[in-house]
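Running log. JK asked me to keep both predictions on one page so they can be read side by side. First protein, sequence followed by its tokens:
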Amino acid sequence: MDPECSRLLPALCVVLADPRQLVADDTCLEKLLDWFKTVTEAESSLQLLQDHPCLMELLSHVLKPQDVSPRVFSFALRLVGIFAAQEDCFQYFQQGELLPGLFGETGALSWAAWRVPSVRSGWTQGLCSLAQHPSALHFLADSGAVDTLFSLQGDPSLFVASAASQLLVHILALSMQGGAPGSPIPESVAWPVCARKIVSHVEESLRSKATPQVTQALNVLTTTFGRCHSPWTGVLWEQLSPPVASLFERDPIPAVHSLMDLLLSVARSPVFNFSACGLWEMLAQTLRRLSPMQAGPLALGTLKLQHCPQELRTQAFGVLLQPLACILKATTQAPGPPGWLAGTADSPLTVDVLLSSKSACVGLLCQTLAHLEELQALPQCPSPWPQVPLLQAAVTILRLCDGSADPSSSVGGRLCGTLGSCVRVQRAALDFLGALSQGTSPVELVLEVFAVLLKTLESPESSPTVLKKGFQATLRWLQNSHKAPGCSDLSPDALLFLGELFPILQKRLCSPCWEVRDSALEFLTHLLRQWGG
């Protein structure tokens, strides 16, 4: 430690220990912690304490919480954790009452300051810092700290609750690091005490009827499988997959989003034999059981997997396509080109969602369009990509929004009323339409795209954000409508379209709305940059 810092340290500790000296700014305490962490990374924590008795006096003073502010209390908890990360310093603390007094079940939990979220957060962060070696694991197993973490998973402070779950994962991984490389993985009943305790708690929570407890357990498992790629995680999944599978038998399925995150986290792990553990069947079952809105994110995540079986990929892609297939059928009396959905276009559940309410319809369409746009840009994009029906669906959605669609059924008529002038759906459809410009499309369909873009940019009812998206989509279609690959000239159809667009552009450049003028000027700038002649 720097000599000048050594001279100042006693006075600093006196200020921190004095309850009359109010520390009004947490920033200085955070900087102090960062400084102590830097010092302990370069020096022995035990030597630091022995050379500066004032530090031990400050930490011992914290055992009298009535004389310490919550800010300083939280600071001290984190500082103890930084020092105790080194095993010899941890053993030094163990000789006194400091660690049990601060982190044991008879310690901080019994103090009035425990009601302050920053104190609970400091306790969790301090414990995370010291949980770095076998001695810490024995202390955690014997002190009741792990039980406290179980209760903190449901803490009113989301930050504290998240930190508690993350720390449980850290402790579980640390407990399982002791095995010799290449040695057989023991059954979970032979795991270290901390690991067994955490796994038993997770298993019990998965069987709970209370959704918050199920969610907490699923989040711990999701993080575990996401971070830990050791063979012992296979034993963990083998034990816990039955209670996870039983969640699908409940009605309604609890903690759906957390459950989907877990399945995808397991599916990304490099240590599993997925066919043997039944994961693909579980994913397929989940896609069938969930509502269209819930199934969308899981379908996209499934399609991103590297080793997903083709049958499951087809099922997942069908889930994403169903809302657009329903749109096409409601407006053209046909489910789309033969085979593009392998017979799943008639989804009563999807139609029910589209017609149930405006918010449900808008939410499902916006989610579907965003997912398909993301999927198109990925290496895992399905092939062949159904460019034509997707483009027809995007154009149809925009026509439903601007009122120019010709619905061919009662469902189409209701969709016209629901989506009329819907800005959210227009924005999502224009983004997707712009993304589809990368594909190869028949000329007659490109002309339809230009027509719907022209109507969007011309309509006095188009909002500034819709106009901005419209200009962006138009630019992308112009950039991809060359007469030949590598040719910078515009096609005749694109030139005719520009001739019709220029009067509209001139009008938008004179709009009283600055956002509209800005979007039009940005569009014109891109045109001049690329086709100045």
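And the second, directly underneath as requested:
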Amino acid sequence: MKTATIRREDVELLAPAGDWDCMRSAVANGADAIFFGVEKFNARARANNFRMDELPEIMAFLHSYGVKGFLTFNILIFENELTDAKELIDACVDAGVDAVIVQDLGLVKMIREISPDFPIHGSTQMTITSPEAVEFTKPFDMERVVLGRENNLKQIQKIGEQAKLPMEVFVHGALCVSYSGQCLTSEMWGGRSANRGECAQACRLPYDLMVDGEHKPMGDVAYLLSPKDLAAIDLMPELIEAGVTSFKIEGRLKTPEYVANVVSKYRKAIDRYFDGDNTPPSKEEVRELQQSFSRGFTHGFLDGTNNKQLVDGTFPKSRGVYLGRVDQVLRDGVVLKLDAPVKRGDGIVFDAGDPTKKEEGGRVYDVRRKGVKLEGEAEEGWIVDVVPGRSDVDLRRVKVGDKVWKTNDPALDKRLRQSFEIEKPYRIFPVNVKVIGSPGQPLSTWWTDVQKGTTVRVNSEMELDIAQKRPMTHELLEEQFGRLGGTVFQLEELDVNLHGDVIIPMRELNNIRRQAVEQLAGERPKPPVYVKRAVEVYGDAVKPAAPVARGHAELTALCRSLPQVEAALEAGVGMIYADFEFIKQFPAAVEAVRAAGRKIALATPRIHMPGENGYHNNILRLQ
């Protein structure tokens, strides 16, 4: 059921960029907006990232193609970093960045002090998963919220209907096994906080399963916490109708070929929907997505919770496209029935079910069918001999039953690279031209960039003469002003109003065209202008409050169990925070603290999903 009529121009495809090639690739393949980080303060510390001093260049490039740029500022900020944080926000405001994606509410408050109208997006690390969470962000005038990846389609629709704030949702890429913004495993084990952009990806490691203290053998299933990759390309109609306005692709650590592949596929899926075509993505499109990067595809939580579909458990890294299982090992190759096409030059790997050990893999040297070498591609369903390069694969280590994966397709990579490496404008924008002229007057022209909405006026330097032979015509002007190859413009409409038979040298028409294009192109990258106030930040030298009078200091204890509460009371603690696993123990804790004449606060859950207010009502009842 549609929440409202959503127009094509309301929907945004948001792409990742870890470097300039990825940014060009995203623009060339149809992204409406790009998210990227600079050298500090972002949740992908391992990405190449851009430099803060590149912000004006980045935004000029994006805006010249009508693409928005969002800066990721999606980590927690420490007090001694506030000066640096303010410097980066100032740079974003000055460069005309279209929004910052923020996790830390303290930073949100600081941004609002600096600028009341600079756009802020609430990051997925804010764990915004309910209408109430969206309402909580509204006093900060946030432009949109990025929902947690744990919401299903019904919840997303409910949040949209109740909260009425633009929603951004992840549709493709890596998934976390934990709730967005709530994973502390990497921090606890290795001191590398995911909320500081340093996640060590503990979920991608092998684990043993212990049941009631006993080790449970799991065969080749060792990666118990490693989710598959999200791929919601076939759910785009449902997501659009649920009210999602921004579709986010994960992958600032990925290659420009990956960006080209995923962005172009999702661009087609969105355009298909608005063209009234409900055809799902083809098998070939899905395979190409898998080829760029895939740990196996899943809808994540969009269909609801299904843990068996979320985690495969047999491998933690990208496998590519499944080709089939080894039926027979030959002297120089293997026999298998193909689940997907393969050709000479493709990369393959043999999967014996234990990725902790060295796997055999390399390039396909030859493909034979019924003893005959194939020049082209072997198709799905064929039984073929796949011959790998002898120096690549030790066939003595390959066994019947091993899975075979296509890890690389050079032809696909070449096609994807061409989409952003060819020297041509990435996008073309329509221009409307109006022409007025009379004998003895300059020729006046108005050029309008339809997408940007800007108009420039250019007059000829010479005056119009009365034509003796061939006067200027609509066709002539259309031909001269339509010569816009190599620019980002294309003539769409020409309105000509000439009085009498007039003429002007051809060089004048060419000069008008060049000047108009130059002026219009100069208008495109101009940044938006935001209100900016002078704000003083004290960094680690925050102004101290008035000194506390002696005898007024108070000790507070955080307690995880009832015995801890009792021990804290015995020790004379005046204020207790109770954060229990089981809510049923709260009344006893409140009673004990009140009987001792002390104060108590109860911790709410970290996660709040739509309709889950019973827990909070129980807390409120305890007063």
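Observation for JK regarding the second prediction: The first helix runs from residue 20 to 28.
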